[in-house]
User: What shape does this take?
Amino acid sequence: MNGKRLFALLVAVLAVMLVSNSLYIVKETERAVLLRFGEVVNPDVKPGLHAKIPFVNNVRWFDGRVLTVDALPERFLTLEKKAVVVDSFAKWKVSDVKTYYTATGGDENRAQALLAQRINDGLRNEVAVRTLHEVVSGERDQLMTDLTAKLNEFAHQELGIEVVDVRVKQIDLPPAVSQSVYLRMNAEREKEARELRAQGRELAEGIRAFADREVTIITAGAYRESEQIRGDGDAKAASTYAEAFNRDKEFYAFTRSLRAYQDAFQSKGDIMLVEPDSNFFRYLKDPKGGR
Assistant: This one.
């Protein structure tokens, strides 16, 4: 009885192992190939539950998501033979599972190493036909677009990889030339600053000259207008005084004498010698002025 139970248990274990080795699952984030004695029989197994023949078929799984390869910074020469250090990265994913497995053996690190090498070679070629200004800013986007297109031709055919994007993280000058470039850029900026200051001073002088001329014109016009107004006022005052004088000449003479008395005797320290019978005192002697 014990032998039968042991045999039944052994059969059950073998059955479970057989079933477990006969079924496999491919996730949505994975790509897989089905092998038969090492030969690819299904180059692109779809996601889901699948069956295989134990000990005959084998399954290799690969990451089907977009992956990142971070290339090491490399030194390149531009069109004018100036050295730059370029740090870049690329986004890629498996597009042809059979080619990918055949070319790399399914080793992700090997695939990234091959792709990084091709990225550096592509960057070297693209930088070599552009100036430093074009590499840094002028045609940087176009450089990335051209490099991505060229990499895809190689990567898809030889590695079964689709290069989604290539980007430059940083472009630096080598330390040996950074200081000289900085000094030259600083000198250029100082020269430009001096030119701008000179232009500003010239413009300021022109504005000041225009403002001074406007002030002179406005002041002269205001002075001319004020003199005209003052002349009109004096003429009107003289006309008013003349008209008042002609109406009562004696009263006008009397008021002028009173004003003269007020001005003459205003200060106690003043001394004035006048003859008693002078015409100056005629209204003091006679309110009618000697009429």
Residues 175-247 form the longest helix (73 residues). Residues 69 and 109 are 9 Å apart (CA to CA). The chain has a mean pLDDT of 79.
